[in-house]
Automatic annotation (TrEMBL), chain A:
PANTHER family: SPERMIDINE/PUTRESCINE IMPORT ATP-BINDING PROTEIN POTA, SPERMIDINE_PUTRESCINE IMPORT ATP-BINDING PROTEIN POTA
Protein name (database record): Putative spermidine/putrescine transport system ATP-binding protein
Family from the record: Belongs to the ABC transporter superfamily.
A Pfam short name: ABC_tran
Organism, as annotated: Consotaella salsifontis
UniProtKB/TrEMBL annotation, chain B:
Protein's cellular compartments: Cell membrane
A GO CC term attached to the entry: plasma membrane
Organism the protein comes from: Consotaella salsifontis
The keyword Manganese is annotated on this UniProt entry: no
Highest taxon of source: Bacteria
Official protein name in the record: Spermidine/putrescine transport system permease protein
Length: 345, 287
């Protein structure tokens, strides 16, 4: 177990900067989620920590020790691949024991550790199966067991749950978190699923075009995204921009958002209140209802404000008395408008 | 109702398969049956020759030690050529599948397949030019080494093996290449992340996973090499008497088709027995 640090990490593929001077600390024992759209460099960062990608510049430190020149097989890492990469010619037990065999851990010690880790991932009685006889969730558990049995200094997960269906994914998220807590290994995982990142991580990092845009505890980043990209990427956000005045933010159509201190603010859809009658508060915007989406308990309203789409989410019953089409009022409580910077591309 | 549909499906399947069955009948079953028939005759049933049924051709194999000795010699040749082809071909296939990428892979592939596209007779005579005394190889070695060496590989066991390995190498390279290509790179990465070095990865992952291709290639080589006659005759000269040349002589020179046919079927039987004995090992290699 160890903390991981990358410093000024840079990797280019031809004209493309996959990693652009990324500096980031991964706390010892923490669960760290790397998030970003495809091509943002999140997988490259993970593979650079693993040693499969050799950076052009910068440093990778595991437990304070620089490892840029240490080959993958000597870095003492555990890795779970998107495809699980279980060895098809070996049984589950032999798959799990592979790392122990390599370290010449034999006999009773080997058997005990394989049994313990299979119990930990709740596959105690499947040791003699071959990988092709397992379900997706079971393969995932074997991959996890194989990666942690050697007690690596850091555990790297590359989109570990993306191959599972939704119900199983939620179940495995809980499992993953439980296993990580029990073994306490510093864990870094890559995902494009923001909900997964928010659920699992102690800390998240958001990458875009090879740069680290934002990092911190999920709640903090979600509540205070600071820039338009993060606001939109992590959760959903309605963005309002205009010119800053003494009283607040003046939108192009003349409406004023009082109290705003930046030229752009983001409002989460769940904070947008929609009403047929004029609200009493200081924030009053007009919009037209375009579409109503019913999704069980929650309902989504797509509105139009001078050609700009706006999204509102609430319990479906709250939208009940609204007209299907026509003009309505938008408002939100003061403090719901998050000041953000317009992110450069 | 269901049985009617089943019957109709079966009829349709039969109709669709009939060209294949017809082809198999004409191209394989009929000639092979004719040869089985010839092998139990005293003489070829052409013209007004006298013939009757006999088991004598098969007895001849058991009574004459020479035939069995030649068969043993051919089996050894088959084993040697197969072993060498695997030893040379598998690393080549590995480099092709896992090391080189893009255009250079295509170029290398062309070089591998080239022997297939050249006439085998031309190929063998080219080897004769290379291997003979004062030939290409002899001169090249003498040009490099400061002391004179007499290098005449022509008309030797080595010449036969070199010629055969060159002819059959593409089989093992191609079958191994396909098997290696099917191994996901993430498996190798996973093994590395668990601390495995190259040799461990080769022994515990790559070899077991590519074994089916390797074995298929070995079988494709072993069977025809045991019956080969052209390479032994042209490159082996006086030493080049093998079971294959023996059979060829019966058909081409001595005109004893019945004995030639009988010897062929004995070879077929022996090869089948060997493959049968090896099949438990082969099946294990297939996971």
């Amino acid at each position: 177990m160890a903390e991981v640090r990358v410093e000024n990490l840079t990797k280019t593929y031809g004209p493309l900067k996959a990693l652009d001077a990324v500096t980031l600390d991964f706390r010892d024992g923490g669960f760290f989620g790397l998030l970003g759209p495809s091509g943002s460099g999140k997988t490259t960062l993970l593979r650079a920590i693993a040693g499969f990608v050799i950076p052009d510049d910068g440093r990778v430190l595991i437990g304070g020790e620089p490892v840029e020149r240490v080959p993958v097989e000597a870095r003492e890492i555990g890795m779970v691949f998107q495809s699980y990469a279980l060895f098809p010619n070996m049984t589950v037990a032999d798959n799990v024991a592979f790392g122990l065999d390599v370290r010449r851990i034999r006999g009773a010690e080997r058997d005990r550790r394989v049994k313990d880790v299979l119990d930990l991932v709740q596959l105690g009685d499947l040791g003699q199966r071959k990988p092709h006889q397992l379900s997706g969730g079971q393969k995932q558990r074997v991959a996890m067991a194989r990666a942690i049995v050697t007690r690596p200094r850091v555990l790297l997960l590359d989109e570990p749950l993306s191959a599972l269906d939704k119900a199983l994914r939620v179940e495995m998220q809980v499992e993953l978190k439980r296993i990580q807590r029990e073994v306490g290994i510093t864990t870094i995982f890559v995902t494009h699923d923001q909900e997964e990142a928010l659920t699992l991580s102690d800390e998240i990092g958001i990458l875009r075009n090879g740069r680290l845009v934002r990092h911190g505890p999920p709640r903090e980043v979600y509540n205070n995204p600071r820039d338009a990209f993060t606001a939109r990427f992590l959760g959903e956000a309605n963005l309002f921009s205009g010119s800053l005045e003494a009283g607040g933010l003046r939108l192009p159509d003349g409406a004023l958002i009082p109290g705003a201190t930046t030229a752009m603010v983001a409002v989460r859809p769940e904070n947008v209140q929609v009403s047929a009658s004029e609200p009493s508060g200081p924030i009053r915007l007009r919009a037209e209802i375009r579409r109503r989406i019913f999704a069980g308990a929650m309902g989504t309203l797509i509105l139009d404000r001078h050609g700009e789409p706006i999204k509102a989410i609430a319990r479906d019953s709250e939208f009940a008395e609204l007209p299907d089409n026509g003009r309505v009022w938008l408002s939100w409580r003061e403090g719901s408008a998050i000041p953000v910077e317009n992110a450069p591309n | 109702m269901a049985s009617a549909i089943l019957r109709r499906d079966r009829l349709r399947a039969l109709t669709l398969l009939s060209p294949a069955y017809l082809w198999l009948t004409v191209a394989i079953f009929l000639p092979l049956s004719a040869m089985v028939f010839f092998s139990v005759l005293t003489d070829v049933p052409f013209g007004d020759r006298e013939w009757h049924l006999t088991a004598g051709n098969y007895q001849a194999f058991l009574e004459t030690g020479t035939y069995a000795r030649l068969l043993w010699k051919s089996l050894q040749l088959g084993a040697t050529v197969t072993a060498l082809s695997v030893l040379i071909g598998f690393p080549c296939a590995y480099v092709l599948a896992k090391v080189v990428r893009g255009r250079s892979r295509e170029a290398l592939f062309l070089l591998v397949v080239l022997p297939f596209w050249s006439n085998s007779l031309v190929r063998i005579f080219s080897w004769a030019i290379v291997l003979r005394g004062n030939g290409v190889l002899d001169r090249a070695v003498n040009a490099v080494l400061p002391w004179p060496v007499k290098l005449n590989l022509m008309y030797s066991q080595s010449a036969i093996v070199i010629g055969l390995v060159h002819s059959y190498l593409p089989y093992v390279i191609l079958t191994s290449y396909l098997a290696l290509q099917a191994i996901d790179d993430s498996l190798i990465e996973a093994a590395r992340s668990l601390g495995a070095k190259r040799l461990t990865i080769l022994r515990r992952l790559i070899l077991p996973l590519s074994m089916p291709g390797l074995v298929a290639g070995a079988v494709l080589i072993f069977v025809p090499v045991v019956g080969s006659f052209m390479e032994p005759r042209l490159l082996g000269g006086r030493l080049g008497t093998y079971y294959g040349t023996l059979i060829e002589d019966q058909f081409v020179a001595v005109f004893n088709w019945p004995l030639g046919a009988a010897l062929s079927f004995i070879l077929l039987a022996v090869v089948l027995v060997i493959l049968g004995l090896a099949s438990p090992i082969l099946r294990k290699a297939r996971l």
